[in-house]
Amino acid sequence: MPTISRICVAQTLHGVFGQGSRVPDTWDAKLPHEDAIFAGALLALCLRHWGRLQAYIQTMLQNPARGLPLGSQVTLAMGFAQLAWLQGVSDHAAVNESAELAKDRAWGFPPHLGLVNALLRAGARDREQLRLALEALPAALDRSPFAERVLRGALEGVAQDPQQSLEQQQEAVWTRLQEPARPAFRQIRPGPLPEGLVADPTLPGCLQLEPGANFPRAWLESGQGMVQDRSSQALMAFRRKAPVRRILDACAAPGGKTTSLALRWPEAELTAIEQHPRRARRLEENLQVRGIQARIVVDDATAWLKQTNETYDLILLDAPCSGSGTLRKHPELTWIGGGIDLDRLVQAQRSLLEAAIPRLAPEGLLIYAVCSWLPEEGQQHTAWVASQFDGIRLVDAWPAASTAAEPGIFRTQPLAWDGEGFQGLAFQRA
């Protein structure tokens, strides 16, 4: 019987490559801490190097044209990844556990048990040579057309380094995206910080976890702090000098930005909209444990905004998007991103803007945000808004020295910023 950690990895890989599914946030929730660390490392290796792993496997087959069923692709990729890059895993464990997976019809392909066993035993004879052979394969094998599109979008409009070609800069961005994402945190309630949490030297209020420190799960579950990416924290540091009495968070779950708004304007009346009931329950639970008061509306934000007559001094529109800016944290997007209907997302974003802008009070501010590097999901909306609305203008909301691309536009720089790819637009009513 394979270990539960390896079963979790195999199950998740089947979801990604068999069903085109995102990796659920709770995929490793039932694993003990040490098992979850191992499973996370193995899953990341398989996702980040899937192209090279499969290309290498093909060179080992007598008849590559026949291909392999997904179960064999998964079990072999997991075995070779352990042998090549997880030196703490013994030869026996890497080979035998993969063979156990191959015998299970749910995760492997039993007729290929002998093949899986033979190929992995061959790889185990010289693990260093295996690693070198895998890493000698072209890195581009690990990039899909979607990933290439993300790299182009990340660098579009960015000042080019005259010492490097565009292709070299794309390679540099890709290299950064292969580094494990570092979580960032924010303190919600006063009190001592867990051991290992330290102040981010370049972003006020942001906390980072020192290498080797334990993840502060109890601190988070108690509502004293929350996980919030550096880019999200920088975006939420927008300037607003006018009074804020009424706030709307139009796409609120899971509640990180809602919490930021409440902490910054604790006296304001706060409304949070979330369309999906399960996510709305999670939003409510998160706000409750953090001591945040808000009116929660379970409805489609576009429909609700069109029906209401209420106006707001501040509207946050963290719109549904491709998530292309989270590729470092979600490497499965490399392989499933091609199935994203970008045209539909762009239209949904414009529908939300079209519904939200009329709900701005005089001098009201709307912050539009997406965790995406693709220009059509962010910066390109500015011309469309200008063509649709009178009396709405971009306003300088982020310090030029941070991640502001130009007045009124927030955009993280892929080679100079340690955080997710984010775009933000700041619109104000006259």
Search tags:
17 helices, nine-stranded mixed sheet, 43% helix, globular, Rossmann fold, alpha/beta, 13 strands, four-stranded antiparallel sheet, N-utilizing Substance Protein B Homolog, Chain A, 3 domains, 430 residues
Quick recap:
This protein is an alpha/beta fold. 43% of the residues lie in helices and 14% in strands. It is globular and about 70 Å long.
Tell me what you see in this structure:
The chain has 430 residues and is an alpha/beta fold. The chain has three domains: 4-142, N-utilizing Substance Protein B Homolog, Chain A (Orthogonal Bundle), CATH 1.10.940; 185-225, no CATH class; 230-429, Rossmann fold (3-Layer(aba) Sandwich). 43% of the residues lie in helices and 14% in strands. The chain contains 17 helices and 13 strands. Strands 5, 6, 7, 8, 9, 10, 11, 12 and 13 form a nine-stranded mixed beta sheet that branches. A four-stranded antiparallel beta sheet has the order 2-3-1-4. It is globular. The mean pLDDT is 94.
Beta-strand segment tally: 13
Shape: globular
Instruction: Report the CATH topology name of the largest domain.
Output: Rossmann fold
How are helices and strands ordered from N to C? HHHHHHHHHEEEHEHEHEHEHEHHEHEEEE
| CATH class annotation of the largest domain | Alpha Beta
Class of secondary structure makeup:
alpha/beta
Low-pLDDT runs of 5+ residues are: none
